[in-house]
Amino acid sequence: METLEHLLLGHPFLAGLDPALGRMLAGCARNLRLAPGDFLFREGVVADEFYLIREGRVVLELHVPGRAALAIATIGDGDIVGVSWLVAPQRWAFDARAAADTRVFGLDAGCLRDKCEADHHLGYEMMKRILPVMVRRMQAARQQLLDVYGHHPA
Amino acid sequence: MSAAAGADPMLPRPYRVAASRRETGDTVTLELVPVGGAAPGFAPDRFKPGQFNMLYAFGIGEVPISLSGDPADGGRVVHTVRAVGAVSRAIAQAGPGSVLGLRGPFGSAWPMAEAEGRDLLLIAGGLGLAPLRPAIYHALAHSEHYGRIAILYGSRGPAEILYRDELARWRQRSGVTVAVTVDHADAAWDGHVGVVPDLIRGVSFDPANSVAMICGPEVMFRFTARALLGAGVPAGRIHVSMERDMKCAVGLCGHCQFGADFICRDGAVLRYDRVAARLAVREV
Hints:
Chain A has 154 residues and is α+β, with helices and mostly antiparallel strands. Chain A is built from 4 helices and 8 strands; from the N terminus they run ααββββββββαα. Chain B has helices at residues 86-92, 129-141, 164-171, 196-200, 218-231, 263-266, 272-279, and strands at residues 13-24, 27-34, 52-57, 61-66, 77-82, 99-106, 119-125, 149-155, 176-182, 185-186, 192-193, 210-215, 238-241, 257-258, 261-262, 269-271. At the A-B interface, strand 5 and helix 4 of A face strand 10, strand 11 and helix 5 of B.
C-alpha cells in the first residue's frame, strides 16, 4: 500500500522535491474526498489549509447578492487551490466548490507555515512552486478581463 | 492567391443562400449555392482548410469570411458569419433565397499533410472555431493519419459557444480530446472557466512530435502559442491564422500588409516562427 508521503511526492506540484522535504510535508497532510457541490472552503473563513488536487475539478466562485454565483476559474487535476493561507489576514477570498468527484491532499496551513519558517530550504521550494502558479493565474485573469472574444470596434 | 485558374479573382459570382442556421445571438452559418450552376473555372466549394472567400453584400460592401464547411463536401459553400459591422450584418441577415456575391477561395491553408504522423492540437477561440472547423473535419475523417487529436476551444461565455452539437459529437470519438472553456460564467455552467492556454495542461500529447493550429483573436493566440512553446512544442510546428483588413484578397492593394507579408496572399495561415517577432511590435 502506498504511503501518504509517497502519494504526496507523486503530485505534479511537488515533482522533483527532495524526499526528505516530502517527509516534512507529509506530516502536515491529510486526504480529502469531495462530492459534486461540496465546498472546499468559503469566502471569509480562516484559510487554514492548502490543497493539492489529485483528481477532479474545483470551481472558484464569488457570490453576488441577487445574482447566481460567478465562476472565476476552474482548477483541475495536478493543480493547487488556495494561497490565502500564506498571506495575511489568512482568510479565503472566494468560495471553492467541487464540480465533480474530487480527491485532494489538504496540508494544514499552520503546520506548513511553521515548517517553512523553521526550514527555509523547504520554504523556498514551496515559493518556487507557488509563484509560477500565481503568475499563470494572474495572466489568465488579465486575459479574461480583456474580453478578447467580444466585439470591439476600432 | 489561390482562386481557381481561369477565373478573374476580382469578379464576384452570384451565390444564393440555400440555408441559414443561427449559431449564437449574432452568428449564423450560411450554405451558398451558385446561381445558375457553377461557373467554369470557378470552384469555391473546392477549398483547402483555412482558406477564405470574399463575400459581397450588394450595394453595401465586401468582407473576407473563412470557409467553415467540410472540404470533402463539394457543391456547397459554407460560411459562419458574425454580425459585427454593416457588411457582415447584411450578410448574416441574408435569408434563404437571398443572393450574395462571392469570389475565392483565397489564402494559405492549415498544414494538414505536414501534421500527419504527429499529435494534432486544434485550438480555437471565439469565432476562430469556424476557420478551424474544416481542419477538424479533415483530421477526423483521416484520423488514422494522425496521432492523438485534441480540440481545445474557448468562448466568451456559455451562450457564445459555436457548434455546440458538433463539439459534443467530436467528444465521443475515440482518440479525440475535446475541451471547452469560457471566460465568464455563473454557477449554472458545469464546464471549465478560464482561458484557452490553461486547457493545454490537461491534454496528453507529445510536444516534440505535435503540430498545433491556432485560430482566434490575436491576444488569445499569442498567449496560447507561448503556452505551447513552454510545453515544448517547436515554434515551427505552431501555425496561426492571422486577421488583418483584407480588401483585394490577391496581394495587390496592401491593406492587409503585415511586415513582409500580405495576409490575404501569404496567410491567413502562417507559421508562428515567421510572425512571432512582428506580433510583439505594436507599430506593425
